[in-house]
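User: I've been trying to design a sequence by hand for this structure and keep getting stuck. Would you show me what you'd pick, starting by listing the structure so we're on the same page?

Assistant: Good idea, let's start from the same input. This is the structure you sent:
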């Protein structure tokens, strides 16, 4: 009599492995947090550095002494100065360039345009007038290339000249030379400036100063 086959037992299915959420002691968690924190700090520093940059004029190509400076000769360049005082040495792109400026020395391509390298264009109708001004009556930022107004103030109690108007004695004149204020003029406490003035205006200026008893000069910077 044939034997009845005995059925095989069903195969055993291994228990499913469940993913466990890493605990706070898992080093991978701390490594990930450190990477995220470093990325945030680096991004913040980059944004802060970008906010500190300013736009100033640089020379597009090599230029020599005596070359006229026009808008076509300049390119806007973003830079970051470690010392804010350094910015005053250069021309910002928000400043309007006088159309009659030329270089007093050579400037290389890509070099930032310093104020000290600018002067008024040679003009037979322009003369250079020296001024000795009390140091506190001149803005410290005034340098070669600055555009200024010069006011003539009579001494206390003195009457101003009859032909003295309410405005400046010299309006919108360009500073040709402006030695470092730290150098000074010895014990006089005055600062020496040289400004380019139309010849006719220079004559009127000298006449006004001569007529004002004990006149004092005040310089106001425009740009």
């Amino acid at each position: 009599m044939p034997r009845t086959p005995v059925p095989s037992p069903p195969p055993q299915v291994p228990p499913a492995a469940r993913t466990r959420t890493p605990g706070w002691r898992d080093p991978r968690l701390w490594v990930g947090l450190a990477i995220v924190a470093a990325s945030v700090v680096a991004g913040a520093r980059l944004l802060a550095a970008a906010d500190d940059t300013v736009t100033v004029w640089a020379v597009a190509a090599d230029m020599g002494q005596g070359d006229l400076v026009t808008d076509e000769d300049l390119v806007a360049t973003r830079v970051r100065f470690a010392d804010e005082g350094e910015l005053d040495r250069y021309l910002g792109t928000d400043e309007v360039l006088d159309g009659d400026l030329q270089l007093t020395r050579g400037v290389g391509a890509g070099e930032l345009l310093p104020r000290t390298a600018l002067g008024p264009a040679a003009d037979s109708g322009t003369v250079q007038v020296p001024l000795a001004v009390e140091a506190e009556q001149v803005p410290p930022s005034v340098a070669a290339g600055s555009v200024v107004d010069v006011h003539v103030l009579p001494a206390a109690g003195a009457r101003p000249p009859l032909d003295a108007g309410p405005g400046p004695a010299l309006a919108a004149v360009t500073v040709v030379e402006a030695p470092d204020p730290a150098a000074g003029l010895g014990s006089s406490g005055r600062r020496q400036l040289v400004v380019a003035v139309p010849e006719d205006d220079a004559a009127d200026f000298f006449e006004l100063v001569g007529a004002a008893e004990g006149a004092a000069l005040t310089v106001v910077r425009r740009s």
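That's my pick for every position. To get oriented when you compare it with your attempt: Strands lie at 54-59, 74-79, 101-103, 118-120, 126-134, 147-153, 170-177, 190-198, 216-221. The mean pLDDT is 76.
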